[in-house]
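Illustration 12: DNA-binding MarR family transcriptional regulator.
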Amino acid sequence: MDKRHELIHDMELLFRTVFRQLRHEIHAVLNAELSPNEFMTLRMLKDLGPQKVTDISKRLNVSASHITAVTDLLISKEFVERKRSEQDRRIVEIVLTEAGKEVFERVEQKKQDYFFDRFQHFTDEEIKIIITLFEKINRTKQ
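Figure caption equivalent — predicted structure in token form:
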């Protein structure tokens, strides 16, 4: 194996380890109150306002039935509710409740605290380098 192949192989193994580690740690931070899917759904509703299940599923790249199950859980926790659209009464939208906003803000703060703590030993310059490298890797920015 030539040097470049070896480097890419080492990078791939390290990516897998680091992402698994981060996913596990973030899951632990979120899971006290919300699953990652519940959190992402609440984030979308907070950022974009009321949404149809199909719009949420497309944006999060999961099936509509999965989002229906997630929203059913969020409804049972009183974090969201289903409402008829003001513009078209045939359309049912998922709407963030006040309790949903509060839990989202609380968990978002925990997540931010986690990342601040996780990267506290990195200099600003190192964080900028990581951002630059991830932007270069990110195919959606091309």
